Amino acid sequence: MKTNEQLQTLFEHYLAQTDFPAEPQLLYAPIGYSLAGGGKRLRPMLTLLSYAIFDENVQQALPAAAAIEVFHNFTLLHDDIMDNAAIRRGKPSVYAKWGRNVAILSGDAMLIYAYRLLGMLPAAQVPKVLAAFNEMALEVCEGQQYDMDFEEKQKVSVVEYMHMIELKTSVLLAGAVSIGAMLGGAPDEDCRRLRRFAIELGLAFQLQDDLLDSYGDERLGKAIGGDILEGKKTFLTVTAMSHADETTREELRNLLADNRMAAEQKIASVKAIYDRLDVPHLAEQQIELRFERALAQLDTLSADVVRTAPLREFAIGLLGRNK
User: Fold this and answer.
1) DSSP string of 229-289?
2) Is residue 247 packed enough to be buried (19+ CB in 10 Å), middle (13-18) or exposed (0-12)?
3) How many CA atoms lie within 13 A of 208 on its CB side?
4) How confident is the model at residue 176 (pLDDT cuts 50, 70, 90)?
5) What three-state secondary structure class fits 25?
6) Which of 63, 146, 169, 252 could form a cystine bridge with 120, CB 3.0-4.6 A?
7) Can you tell me the distance from the alpha carbon of 12 to that of 26, in angstroms, rounded to the nearest whole number?
8) Could you give the CA distance from residue 155 to residue 228 in angstroms, rounded to a whole number?
């Protein structure tokens, strides 16, 4: 079996061989720029690791892994337009560097290229993989719409927020593992269990991201308190609203809506409310619960524990856990 590091290298080499035309430059240069941004390669790694549980020849899954990574980066190009985001992974976003129209069209081309990659799979496997990919892609769009709806919605419950991040974040991970397992010849029940693993892992990952945005540090690649300054609804916000009395809820609403307050003061004031309501601890509890549920799914697979170990190791590393 290949190590996780070897799988990462294998994927990076495959992606680097992707040959985009030189012209028109403003269509293809932003695609190369986006894909060269790196990131965790979380989704293609999940595809390869899930495939490797059931079959050794992971090269067969590379087109699908690349398709999922290209699709993910396509969503980021369009997300940055919707969010008016100037920075992506510590450098100018495609939207900021080339403008709205280029980001839209290059993103469209990336989506088409993702389908082209799926077409490189063995013909007998394409219909099933395509069905899973399409379901995943539509759910991601649904999640993005809910996220935008929440910007205008006065009250968002914890249940609503969890459903939104399941669609926006978790289903892409679920699609990645399901497609990898499917290509590797996994039984249907194992595919379902791996999907549940990825849903729970994705929830834990997003909740940890929410927590670290306010309680991490700038070594993570973004300034602390960005969500607070944007007035964004996160797990911390909706949990605080659900646990606060009306006076505190109104105070928090006013703070999040105040664009004149100094940034440091605003962040400190909102975090003081979070601390008073024990929100960081509640977030940690939920992260741990979701993470435990994810790992528990791996224990139910028909495959030997030796074969599931690399995927378990990857999940543990992703969340920085010790078990």
Assistant:
1) HHT---HHHHHHHHHS-HHHHHHHHHHHH-SSS-HHHHHHHHHHHHHHTTHHHHHHHHHHH
2) exposed
3) 17
4) very high
5) helix
6) 63
7) 24
8) 16
